[in-house]
Amino acid sequence: xxxxxxxxxxxxxxxxxxxxxxxxxxxxxxxxxxxxxxxxxxxxxxxxxxxxxxxxxxxxxxxxxxxxxxxxxxxxxxxxxxxxxxxxxxxxxxxxxxxxxxxxxxxxxxxxxxxxxxxxxxxxxxxxxxxxxxxxxxxxxxxxxxxxxxxxxxxxxxxxxxxxxxxxxxxxxxxxxxxxxxxxxxxxxxxxxxxx
Length: 196
Ligand code: GDP
What we know:
By secondary structure, this protein is an alpha/beta fold.
């Protein structure tokens, strides 16, 4: 699979330190606790991969994983964590917005949202930063195992309806790291971005 060779590559805390790999990257972002690390680990079939990103001192960094073929997955810092000091928050906002708006190697963004409360204000802010690039965005509505089939179907429909109106380049799907559901769809989407 696309992620089967995933291995930690580097960690970055300043725009000037972004790697000059000349390849393509896909970034994962989401509200803290939405399930981003679990989703990355599930896709990579690896329980410790995104663990690196939770190492104290690295949580506010951009963590790069090499996927082979000069393709990279970038685990972006989670947002909305309450106890972040204002200076750290300001640095984070700057780094993330600069990265999303200017990184040429970035060919698509995966946004992780908890299926029980998708499209928070911060989530929409993130979409708003990246949407003007015109590059594709794919939303994983994760923890879908916590919803009934009917609830998850309705959630997906509502999210798609919102996206069609406000962020037409955005796609969305249900995902569950617990049940390993939605992996093929997510992988196919990301593989398509790398090969475009
Ligand atoms: P992150 O902060 O976005 O990286 O979130 P984590 O991946 O660390 O997940 C936060 C919490 O949600 C953890 O307790 C996970 O076990 C749980 N979690 C993550 N994904 C799922 C899922 O698909 N289903 C369920 N039921 N729990 C999940």
